[in-house]
Design goal:
By secondary structure, the protein is mostly beta strands. The chain has 2 helices and 7 strands, in the order E-E-H-E-E-H-E-E-E. A 7-stranded antiparallel sheet has the order 1-2-5-6-7-3-4. A hairpin with a 3-residue loop joins strand 3 and strand 4. It starts with 6 loop residues before the first strand and ends in a 13-residue tail after the last strand.
Length: 114
Amino acid sequence: MRIYPTTTFNYQYLDENNQIQNLNYHVVSFHEYLHDQDIDLFYIENASIISVQQTIELDKAALEYAYLGYLDNPKELTLLFPRDPSKASWIFNVQDIRFNYKSNIPNWGDEDNV
């Protein structure tokens, strides 16, 4: 997987010595990632996020506020959820994303002469 970061997301936390630490993730919004892949979020029902540890199913609503990014190595992707300040819901080492599409999508232009 390859992303083209458009911004930086700064994450601050306290380390074990109560010192403020900063992590600067290079990120792209999930909307922009889909646009780069020529995929419209409207047609997606859910997605399977495949990481080194597990596969996680996410619905479309969860993806709308997500970002894909990395710290230093562009091959170590993380799916970030900025609304969760604890990093508990973040998915690290994303290897692949597979989409499940809606089944009732009309085929515009394929109808018979009406």
